[in-house]
Write a structure and sequence with these properties.
Blueprint lengths: L4 H10 L7 E7 L2 E8 L5 E6 L10 H7 L3 E6 L18 H15 L4 E6 L1 H12 L4 E7 L10 H12 L3 H11 L7 H10 L22 E6 L7 H11 L4 E5 L12 H12 L1
Helix pairs in contact: 1-7, 2-9, 3-4, 5-6, 6-7
Amino acid sequence: MPPSAFDLAYDEFRARWPASTEERDVATPYGRTRVHVHGPVDGSPLVLLPGGSATGLVWLANAAVLGERYRVHAVDLLGDAGRTENRGTPLKGADDLTAWLDALLDGLGLARTHLCGHSYGAWLAVRYALHAPQRVDRLALVDPTQVFAGFRPGYLLRALPTLIRPGETRARAFLAWETAGAHPDEAWQRLYALATTVPGRKLVTGGRPRAAGLRMPVLVLLGERSRAHRAAKVAERARRTLPRAEVELLPGATHHSLPLAAPQRLNDRLGEFLR
């Protein structure tokens, strides 16, 4: 079969990653997981979990910088569009996601790692850090959703047409509304929009994790103009829930423009926190 429009867009965007990036397909009970690996072999490991439909490739502008010091592992999520397969144990619930991450870290040979997630990936990162705190050195959350607060009703109403009848045009219109003025990468916008049309996607969700139980150092970075939630309100709740956490708003950033748009401040803060 000829490659799909999504596959072509995926390969086009992947070609922009640093030439030294390795593609690893890690065996897990749930199927093979695609991981984009960049950085020095002896660097401290850093696992990056993307938001829904974003694919691990969305960390392009971050991996190139963080990979100067860290061994970056950007993951295509189980159940989402990308090159990760779900051809083994069925993905049924949130517990399957933590079991999958256990198997993935084992397959990568990572007894411990720094962990960073964006949006849905941040929700998953928190669940995993609570599940296996002994494996997470430092935890960074980029505009996390369903962790400290729920979605704004207006955001859900805007997202609903794309969820009910996925399509590139609908997804692009939704992105244009949420990222207005932030100018995310055009090629990635197309990849995201096409990802929503990939058959068989199954993003498993669940309740809010008990973030107050986190014991490792935590960084929370919020998009100042995020339409997914009210950033100032989320910041207040994050500080109340985790008094020792570092919490900061990223000026001009929206939910879906992260982590690609204007990545310098994001990279600087992540670098400072991880060091």
